[in-house]
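User: Can you model how manganese (II) ion sits in this protein?
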Amino acid sequence: MKITRNSIDTTAGPSEWFTGAVFVDTVAAPSDGSRLSASSVHFTPRARTAWHTHPKGQTIWVTEGVGLCQCRGRSIEVIRPGDRVFFEPSEDHWHGAAPTRFMTHLAMLEVDDEGNPATWKEHVTDEEYGAAPALDGEGR
Ligand code: MN
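Assistant: Here's the modeled complex, given as structure tokens:
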């Protein structure tokens, strides 16, 4: 058993992987005995990941705010607290906050044999992000 007290600093999401201000708290880190990686990711309004894939897929679970997610070639979905999204292995996608809301999600995945959690691609453009449905209650 290993207890990690609330002593790990929140880190800023790197600009290569995110647009806008994003902050990450590590929940579980892979080790010799576990492939599990989990993070609580805090997106400020309009902030989002770049396009990316996960070798073993990923589950996100929204805990606060209002968010958006999209798989390549499909429409943007509005996601809210309690919503769970599974991205299939190698499915190209992004996730982030709605234009006028913060969003926090718990992100969970298994790293591959080499320890890789994700393959990162280009940023989501403002034009791509701007295709999100309006948050008028009809957005889901
Ligand atoms: Mn992802």
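A couple of observations from the model: The longest helix spans residues 126-129. The two ends are 42 Å apart (CA to CA).
User: Helpful, thanks.
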